[in-house]
Amino acid sequence: MYTLKILGFLIYLLVNISAVVSVSGSKSYVCPTHCTCTNEEIVCQEKDTMSYIPDIRSSSVTEVVIENQRDLLEINETSLQYLLRLEKLTIVNCKVKKITPRAFYGNRNLHFIDLQNNDIDRLSWEPFDGLNISQLILNGNNVPCTCESKWLQLMIEHNKVSDSLKCTLPSGSGSEMFLKDADITELDEQCDLPVLKVEPQKITINETESVTMRCEVVGNVIPTPYLEWDLDHIKSDYSVSDDGSVQKLTFNNATGSDNGLIECSASNVVGKVTKGVELTINSAPRILELREPYAYFHHCFFFNFTGTPLPSIKWYLNGVLLDIPWTTDPDFNENDDHLYLAMIKPDSTHEFTGCLYIQIPTHYNNGNYTLVLKNLLGSVNATVYGRFSENPDPVNPPPPPNANKTAVTILAPGPTKDVTVYVAVVVSVMITMFVVAAMIICGVRYFRRKRRRPTSAINGYASHPLNTVSLTMSANGDVLAKRTAVPVDRLQMVENPNYFKKMHQQDSKRTPVIRHMKRETIHFIRELGEGAFGRVYLGRCDNLTESDETTLVAVKTLKDSSIGDARRDFEREAELLTNLQHNNIVTFYGVCIEGDPLLMVFEYMENGDLNNYLRSRGPDAQYLSKIVTTDAVLHSAKLLFIAVQIASGMVYLASQHFVHRDMATRNCLVGDKLVVKIGDFGMSRDIYSTDYYRVGGQTMLPVRWMPPESVLYRKFTIESDVWSFGVVLWEIFEYGKQPWYELSNHEVIEYIKNGTLLDCPAACYEHREIYTIMLGCWHRQPTKRLPIREIRDTLKKACEDCPGYVNLFST
Ligand code: AMP
Fold first, then answer.
1. What are 590-634's pLDDT values in tens digits?
2. Within a domain: residue 160?
3. Which site among 233, 507, 624, 674 is 20 to 30 Å from 110 CA-CA?
4. Residue 643 near residue 649, CB atoms below 8 Å
């Protein structure tokens, strides 16, 4: 306990000291010596102070200026690799001679490049391939008036290179002329861009059929081009035959996923030309995914399908056809008057994602939702149960919604007999009003509750009496927090609506029973730590498993169980925990509710919480941990192994539609052999209270882990958990550092609002793909964030490919 307090104090000191050290404003990377830096810009003008471009690792820098460096000779693929957001590069009055073909490979936003007054005498188009160049300045170099500079001549024609650029004549006299006026074909005999022909240009086939496409260089082009089909993403079984200037590509067994443009390119020193075959592969519809509804802006049945031509889409509720308007309009605004709305949008050339939105549903909308897709090659259907709320009064159900308020028409399938079902819009409004009134009455009582969980609810639970309270609380959390007299040491958190939801349907069918344990079977050994809601002990439990007489367990105690609804909350959490069963979720054994204190019994994870574990095995371990471990600093394979396990736990939580809302390393536990499990479902700890931001009264938000939509609108979704996972990944590769440790909570909020992202951790420099995953988690648009399953798979592969992976299992 004291150790933890001292550690907490040290961390506090460290955070504050580092805040003082970052005097250079808000930048969070190391500014190279002899340069001046801001968050966005690095300027190095001090004469002859560098012989290579300094290794700058920042995702916020957009401009680099380097001047007057006579020892700077080359720009290569490592020079700027960590400046993922670089837009403008100025390297002038230096001696740069060589720019390698992949020099700007990591700088996809680079558009302005000023390389005046260097020693460049050969420059290929390759480093600039794929960049959307607005200005390339090369004056004051030695570009030759030969075929190699023909591409620059073409750039001058497109106003991307200045027409004052001069080239050196090959005569050896050193004489110059304007490149725009040089007749390169005369000087260099033949020098042209390849001319390319693909055949057929358009073709439609059915899945499993074969097709052959030709790509051919027309005429006798010199320099001879290199021909290539882009086959990177092709899933069909294919073969390529090459006879010099013609390449034939044959799909032997076409699959629908190769629908779209199949490209062929020809390149020579003058440049690259690409042409494509528009290939349409007709395929029967396939439903790749249909999820139970989750609340984002509205409740959404998310679905994902393929099929060409675009299948017709029909939805049935309990076998009755729903007449739903649907759209593919990308600017579609779901804030419409309809109860149901379906939207689909192309995900790729062959995949579509969509949502069946339901606005303010009630228990009348509960039922089996069937999606039916049909096109000329076939049809397919899938059903999922939508459960929005309980019938508020199952014994005396309220009368059906007002028959005069027509909102949607449901048609019976087959020979149509129209049945009109009226939606309870008015009833919903009344319920909401009732709820607001109930909230005022319940507010005081609510805040007497002992246990609070982080952050607010999102819209969509309004029709559930309990959820309604959480919804209203979230919207007004600050105000209520002020109104309520809560002991200062209590965390004021708003309910996580997951606690009200039944778990995934399959699991609720199983409905595991909470195991009740006798107090005399639990023996306390020592204290492990203190959570916000009670102490945690290492204990021994008799006859817990069939194989062992005694099992080591972690026992969480609930202090003051007599206060408010603590007991009910306790039982509810026990029910939730009983339902969550996965290898990467800490095992919940059961409860003891005889007498006080109430106890929850968990699997014992001998290495404690992950944050502490990382800190005590990181490069600063000696300053942070009193317990000196003999373990070496965790290497990349181990860090990745940790990350994969958390991602696996999150894939499971997402499959259960459980939004965690507080994913952070402090909420994960480490067991033997580096087993990592998600171990805390929404409670912060005293020791980590600096990780939470107190908004309004006592509401605590883990802002450093939260995406903009959660910070600004208190929206928590599977996608906001993905953002938090990106931060968890950052914590792992920073060995438990606090995200944005150099900033105050208030500054962090500003950064998040402005879209500033955490920098690439040093331990990821060798694994840039890991930082790419982080960036994929931190997309501002939640729907564009990487799906957690994909993250897990990518991390798993990276882990398996990592040197040191094989040794993990002897850990
Ligand atoms: P919590 O109440 O979950 O915040 O936990 C407080 C402290 O108890 C943490 O610092 C953990 O290190 C420790 N702890 C919690 N659960 C376990 C467990 N299952 N096994 C081992 N230590 C635990």
1. 988 877 788 999 999 999 999 999 999 988 877 776 555 556 788
2. no
3. 233
4. no
pLDDT of residue 25: 38
Percentage of residues in the chain having pLDDT higher than 70: 72
**Which of 533, 540, 669 gets mutated to test ligand 1 (max ligand atoms within 8 A of its CB)?**
669
The DSSP annotation for 545-593 comes to SSS-SEEEEEEEEETTTTSTTHHHHHHHHHHHHHH---TTBPPEEEEE-
- Residue 177 pairs with which residues in a beta bridge? 167
SS3 of residue 44 by DSSP: strand
Q: What is the 3-state secondary structure (H, E, C) of 101-153?
A: CCCCCCCCCCCEEECCCCCCCCCCCHHHCCCCCCEEECCCCCCECCHHHHHHH
Please tell me whether residues 538 and 596 are part of one structural domain: yes
What the block records as the tokens of 301 is 């049945």
Output the domain CATH number for residue 259. 2.60.40.10
Q: Are residue 345 and residue 380 in the same domain, yes or no?
A: yes
Q: What is the pLDDT of residues 35-78, one digit of tens each?
A: 999 888 999 999 999 999 987 877 678 999 999 999 999 999 88
pLDDT single digits (tens) 455-495: 222 222 222 222 222 222 222 222 222 222 222 223 333 34
Q: Are 316 and 374 in contact (CB under 8 A)?
A: no
Whether 662 is a known active-site residue: answer yes
Which of 603, 628, 663 is where one domain is finished?
Answer: 603
Residue 583 lies in a domain: yes
CA distance 351 to 345: 9
Q: What is the CATH number of the domain that holds 30?
A: 3.80.10.10
Domain that holds residue 254: 196-281
How many domains are contained in the chain?
A: 5
Position 448 in a domain: no
Coil/strand/helix, residue 691 = helix
Which of 230, 256, 281 terminates a domain? The answer is 281
Q: Whose CA is nearest to atom 2 of ligand 1?
A: 531
Same domain, residue pair 367 and 482: no
Rounded Cα distance between 394 and 402, Å, is: 19
Residue 214 lies in a domain: yes
Scored b (16 or more CB within 10 A) or e, 653-680 reads bbbbbbbbbbbbbbbbbbbeebbbbbbb
Residue among 188, 662, 680, 759 flagged as catalytic:
662
Asked if 443 and 436 count as a contact pair (C-beta separation under 8 A), the reply is no
Tokens 């373990």 belong to residue: 631
What average pLDDT does range 142-168 have in this prediction?
94
Name the helix (H) or strand (E) containing 275.
strand 271-290
Q: pLDDT at residue 385 above 50? A: yes
Instruction: Look up residue 371 and give its amino acid.
Output: L
Residue 691 has pLDDT above 90, yes or no: no
Residues in contact with ligand 1 (CB, 6 Å cut-off): 528-531, 536, 554, 556, 586, 602-605, 608-609, 669, 679-680, 683, 685
